[in-house]
Structures are given as structure tokens and as C-alpha cells.
Specification:
The protein is an alpha+beta fold and 273 residues long. Helix content is 34%, strand content 21%. The protein folds into 2 domains: 33-108, Ribosomal protein L9, N-terminal domain (Ribosomal Protein L9, domain 1); 127-262, Ribosomal protein L9, C-terminal domain (Ribosomal Protein L9, domain 2, Roll), CATH 3.10.430.100. Strand 9 (230-236) and strand 10 (245-253) form a beta hairpin.
């Protein structure tokens, strides 16, 4: 028995009219791109300033701005959550900032021009003061090690005070070459000591303000120069103060070892009868 042949049917696609597609697409596009007005509760780079009313997509407001509490909805008949910042106010704020930056720029140019017209003598004086500050710092770190006599005069116009002596080290260490007997090749004079102390405290110190005492064999003697390795007592007279400022001076030889220096004893002076 022969089976009846299968009937093949062709599916015919159902086309919608172009007008329907266009209308549907336009309706969907219009719905997805419709923006709403929101007010920014904080400044967001690329969007606007705090208090400004902007237009954004509903999804962006719902999923980001509103969720992060960075914006609020602007509804008819409802007061804004914070004071509104209009475009005119934003432009005025930007203009104020531009004016401020312009004034700062002009002030910087004026300062640069003034520095370019400073008297060369003033520049030399400032450089000398800077070198003096550097030298004082180095001397403090090295405990004022003397290498050669200094005949220059250090004048600042400032009187010596207790505050100026705050930078004075507890032990003033002076270093100079000496003989094997312990006597220095060149004694440290009071004038040289005064100059170094003036540089250290950055104030004017005179020789009359200083008093150096040598304690030896149970006796104290005021000396006029430091000519032997060892320790001395330094007193500085401060104007307006009853008590004198006291420190220790330690004279060290640069040519003898510490062991050799510890064995040295200053010979007694024999007075002529």
C-alpha cells in the first residue's frame, strides 16, 4: 500500500510594515533617552557643582546618583533639598577664581622683577650671611675645631643674651697642632676665641665678656691665652645678668694621640724671686 506523499509547506515570514517598525523604534528610543532633572548634592567632576540642577537619564539617577546619595529628584511643587546653584552663580565663582589666580601670578612676577633689581651689595651681604650660617652649623657639628688663626671680625649688631647661648655646646672642643710637650704650636688668643664664640651664638661678644680659668694644682688662675692641651673653665658675662654663663673648653692636639695627651702634665711655672 502506497503512502500518500508528504506535503511540504513553506513557512511564510510575517513582515510588519516599515511604518510600524519605525514607530516602535522611535517610541522605544524616545522612552530610553528621556532625561529627568536632578539636583546635585555634591560636586561631581564632569557633571556639575553642588546645588546645580542638571538633566540625566533615569537609570543613571536610579542606579548611581540616588543610590550613592549624590543627587535628589526635582519634583514639581517641591522645594529643592539644598540651595540652588544657578549657571550665573557658577560663572561668577569661576571668574572670581580666575581673578584670584591672576593676582597671584602678577604678585609672583613682581617679586621676581624686584629680586632681579636688588642692589649687588645687598646680594653679597645676604650671601655672606648665608655662608656664616653654614659655617656656624659646621662648627657646631665639629665642636669648633680650630685649624688656623682667624683674624676676621664677626659683627652682627645683636647683643649677647641667654637665648643666643642656647646653641652653645656643653664642652667647647678646640683642636690645634702641638709639640710633644703639650704646648700648642700657636696659642689660641682671647681675640680668636671671642671671634669663634661670636660666630657660634650669632651675637657680638667682646674679649671683656670672656674669662678663662685654668685650674691646676688646686689653684685657679685667669689666663690670657690657651697654650697647652687640657681643660679650661670658660665664663661669659651677659649684660643684665648677675650670674655668668659657664662652659668647659677642651683643647686637643691634632698631632698627638689621645693616649699621649692623657700622659701630659702642664709644668709648674717657676716664679722669679
Amino acid at each position: 500500500m502506497l503512502k500518500s506523499p508528504l506535503r511540504l509547506t513553506r513557512s511564510v515570514p510575517i513582515f510588519t510594515s516599515p511604518s510600524t517598525l519605525c514607530l516602535g523604534s522611535a517610541a522605544f528610543s524616545t522612552k530610553s533617552k528621556k532625561k529627568i532633572s536632578v539636583q546635585l548634592l555634591t560636586k561631581i567632576k564632569g557633571l556639575g557643582e553642588k546645588g546645580e540642577i542638571i538633566n540625566v537619564l533615569p537609570a543613571f539617577m536610579r542606579n548611581f546618583l540616588h543610590k550613592e546619595n549624590q543627587a535628589s529628584y526635582v519634583l514639581p511643587g517641591q522645594e529643592p533639598k539644598i540651595p540652588v546653584l544657578t549657571k550665573a552663580m557658577i560663572d561668577a565663582k569661576k571668574e572670581e577664581l580666575r581673578q584670584k589666580n591672576r593676582l597671584l601670578y602678577e604678585a609672583a612676577l613682581a617679586k621676581k622683577a624686584a629680586e632681579a633689581t636688588i642692589d649687588p651689595a645687598q646680594i653679597a651681604l645676604e650671601n655672606a650671611r648665608a655662608r656664616s650660617r653654614v659655617n656656624r652649623s659646621v662648627e657646631e657639628l665639629t665642636n669648633l675645631r680650630f685649624t688656623e688663626p682667624n683674624n676676621t671680625t664677626h659683627t652682627t649688631g645683636r647683643k649677647i643674651t641667654l637665648n643666643a647661648l642656647d646653641s652653645f655646646p656643653p664642652v667647647l672642643r678646640l683642636k690645634r697642632s702641638s709639640q710633644t710637650t703639650g704646648f700648642l704650636d700657636q696659642p689660641i688668643t682671647m681675640a680668636e676665641l671671642t671671634e669663634r664664640i661670636s660666630q657660634l651664638v650669632d651675637a657680638d661678644v667682646s674679649t671683656t665678656d670672656l674669662e678663662v680659668i685654668l685650674n691646676q694644682n688646686g689653684k685657679s688662675e685667669v689666663i690670657s691665652e690657651l697654650d697647652f692641651v687640657g681643660k679650661y673653665q670658660l665664663f661669659i658675662n651677659i649684660p643684665g645678668q648677675t650670674d655668668k654663663f659657664s662652659r668647659i673648653i677642651s683643647v686637643v692636639s691634632s698631632t698627638l694621640s689621645p693616649i699621649e695627651q692623657n700622659k701630659l702634665v702642664r709644668p709648674r711655672e717657676v716664679k722669679e724671686e
